[in-house]
């Protein structure tokens, strides 16, 4: 990029025009009004300052122009290389582009759904494991319940046997009492 302190055009554009007096400005305004009445266009700019070494002062500006020229040549080459299509080819390519956009959107949706399916599969697996674990606990509880029921049945049988034995002992005691009373009454 050109150095603005060496580029006279840049200096002119960005320089504050403090050297002009109010009288000069008023005179310029009157001249502009007079030329506007006559219908001629007016440029309100002061003349460019002159320099002894014009090639040195305009060198950066010429460099800028060369850069612009190269950029324009490159742009012209790109435009020349551009493909121009007729209406049918354009319509076909636009339709193809639309299908490609839809395909990409559907592929993104498929990936999203695959992620959801994977999450649901993991959740389902976790729930299946929890169900298997709960069934195992249920089987263990049923086995424990059967053990307790068997123990209760065994205790009932033992209780029934003890009850029957107590009844037999009670009957024997009653018989012995009647024998003792019979012996006590005879003697």
From TrEMBL:
Region (Disordered): 1-61
Keyword entries, A-Z: Coiled coil
Coiled-coil features, chain-numbered ranges: 96-151
Presence of keyword Coiled coil: yes
Basic and acidic residues biased stretches: 16-28
Bias (Low complexity): 29-38
Protein name according to UniProt: Uncharacterized protein
Organism expressing this protein natively: Tetradesmus obliquus
């Amino acid at each position: 990029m050109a150095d603005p302190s060496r580029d006279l055009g840049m200096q002119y554009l960005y320089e504050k025009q403090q050297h002009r007096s109010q009288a000069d400005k008023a005179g310029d305004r009157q001249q502009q009004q007079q030329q506007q009445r006559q219908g001629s266009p007016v440029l309100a700019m002061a003349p460019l300052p002159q320099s002894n070494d014009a090639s040195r002062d305009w060198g950066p500006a010429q460099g800028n122009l060369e850069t612009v020229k190269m950029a324009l040549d490159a742009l012209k080459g790109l435009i020349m290389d551009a493909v121009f299509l007729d209406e049918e080819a354009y319509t076909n390519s636009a339709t193809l582009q639309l299908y490609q956009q839809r395909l990409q959107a559907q592929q993104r949706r498929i990936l999203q759904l695959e992620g959801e399916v994977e999450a649901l599969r993991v959740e389902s697996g976790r729930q299946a494991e929890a169900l298997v674990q709960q069934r195992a606990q249920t089987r263990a509880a049923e086995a424990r319940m059967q053990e307790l029921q068997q123990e209760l049945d065994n205790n009932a049988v033992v209780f029934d046997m003890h009850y029957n034995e107590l009844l037999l002992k009670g009957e024997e005691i009653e018989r012995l009492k009647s024998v003792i009373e019979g012996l006590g009454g005879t003697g």
